């Protein structure tokens, strides 16, 4: 499994719609709205590098409201813990 982290600049007037469209793309596992210089971060998890090109260049970049992207390829994962349980509150 290859993981790519995609930094996204988007039309802030359509941010929620852009995020939802990106999240619905095959290969996109998560989309986060963030503070700072970026608007969204998407995690892409696919089998091959060619699949990254398909997801990012052929689909994600063509979502209306996406202004610019920068893609980072993850080389190695250092943590295998369940992120959902790490961020859950309460019981």
Task: Give a concise summary.
The protein has 91 residues and is an alpha+beta fold. The protein is built from three helices and four strands; from the N terminus they run E-H-E-E-H-E-H. It starts with a strand and ends with a helix.
Order of strands in the sheet with the most strands?
Answer: 2-3-1-4
Strand content: 25-35%
CATH architecture: 2-Layer Sandwich
Taking all Cα atoms into account, the compactness measure Rg is 14 Å
Catalogue the unreliable spans. Answer: none
Mind describing the biggest β-sheet? 4 strands, antiparallel
* CATH topology tier name: Alpha-Beta Plaits
Please count the beta strands (DSSP E, at least 2 residues each): 4
Cα separation of the termini: 32 Å
Order of helices and strands: EHEEHEH
The pLDDT mean sits at 91
Structural class: alpha+beta
Architecture overview:
The chain is built from three helices and four strands, in the order βαββαβα. It is an alpha+beta fold and 91 residues long. Strands 2-3-1-4 form a four-stranded antiparallel sheet. Strand 2 and strand 3 form a beta hairpin. The N and C termini lie far apart (32 Å).
List its salient traits.
91 residues; alpha+beta; Alpha-Beta Plaits; four-stranded antiparallel sheet; 33% strand; globular
What does the secondary structure layout of this molecule look like, with pairings?
Blueprint: E1 2-10, H1 15-23, E2 28-33, E3 40-46, H2 49-59, E4 66-73, H3 83-87
């Amino acid at each position: 499994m290859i993981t790519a982290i995609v930094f996204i600049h988007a039309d802030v007037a359509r941010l929620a719609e852009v995020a939802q469209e990106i999240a619905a793309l095959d290969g996109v596992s998560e989309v986060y709205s963030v503070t700072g210089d970026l608007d969204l971060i998407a995690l892409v998890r696919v089998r091959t590098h060619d699949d990254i090109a398909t997801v990012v260049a052929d689909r994600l970049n063509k979502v209306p409201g996406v202004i610019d992207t920068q893609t980072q390829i993850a080389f190695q994962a250092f943590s295998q813990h369940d992120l959902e349980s790490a961020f859950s509150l309460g019981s």
